[in-house]
Structures are given as structure tokens and as C-alpha cells.
Amino acid sequence: MGGLWEFPGGKIEPNETIKECIKREIKEELGIEILVRESLITIEHQYPKFKVTLFVHHCQYLQGTPQAIECEEVRWVNLLELDKYTFPEANYEIINLLKSSVQKY
């Protein structure tokens, strides 16, 4: 899905848990260490030619400087700024959930 912004992540390796996958993918893609916390949402989305399942967790930044290792660019933005970026369809459910949870407080 070239040209679109996305949250970091990737495919689960054999014998790897979801939390292990998230931690590994963040390290590989951004070069930072995180603590993977509780599940936020699981999304199953059917695109015209394939289906994805996104396992989204709350994560806590621990250390390192974010780098664009496996992507062209990295940006840390707040929820209000996300509207300036175009994401794959499945990601909008994550964005909407994050926005609604912040509005509750």
C-alpha cells in the first residue's frame, strides 16, 4: 500500500506470541525498545485482494531514538494531527478508537 502512512507492525513468526511479534517489529522498524501492554483491539479487515488481522496493543516506550529503518519516514504525532495523513482503511478503526477513548477524559 505504497504512499500511505501506517502504524509499525508485521507478520508473526512461527512460535512467536503476539506480544513478542510487536516488540520485535518495533525494534526492527524503528530501533526502539518498548513494553507491550494490554490488547486494545483486534481488527479483521477484508481488502479487495487480501484479508488482514491487526492485533493492536497499548505499548510503553522504554528507550532508543526512533529511526526510519524499514520505511521512508517516521513521525510522532498527536491524535489531532493524524487527520493530516492517509492510512490504509483498516487503520482508521484504530484511529477512531484512540480518539474516542481520549474524548472520554
* Spatial order of strands in the largest sheet: 1-2
Helix content: 10-25%
Q: Summarize the helix and strand pattern as letters.
A: HEEH
Radius of gyration: 14 Å
* Mean pLDDT reading: 92
Q: Any idea how many domains?
A: 1
The proportion of strand residues reads 25-35%
Could you state the CATH homologous superfamily?
Nucleoside Triphosphate Pyrophosphohydrolase
- Total strands: the figure is 2
What is the fold named in CATH at topology level? Nucleoside Triphosphate Pyrophosphohydrolase
- Please report the distance between the alpha carbons of the first and last residues: 34 Å
For the biggest sheet, the summary is: 2 strands, antiparallel
Structural class: alpha+beta
- Flag low-confidence runs: none
Binding site for 8-oxo-dGTP: 6-9, 91
Protein name: 8-oxo-dGTP diphosphatase
GO molecular function: 8-oxo-7,8-dihydrodeoxyguanosine triphosphate pyrophosphatase activity; 8-oxo-7,8-dihydroguanosine triphosphate pyrophosphatase activity; 8-oxo-dGDP phosphatase activity; 8-oxo-GDP phosphatase activity; metal ion binding
Catalytic activity: 8-oxo-dGTP + H2O = 8-oxo-dGMP + diphosphate + H(+)
Briefly, what is this?
This protein has a single domain (18-103), classed as Nucleoside Triphosphate Pyrophosphohydrolase (Alpha-Beta Complex), CATH 3.90.79.10.
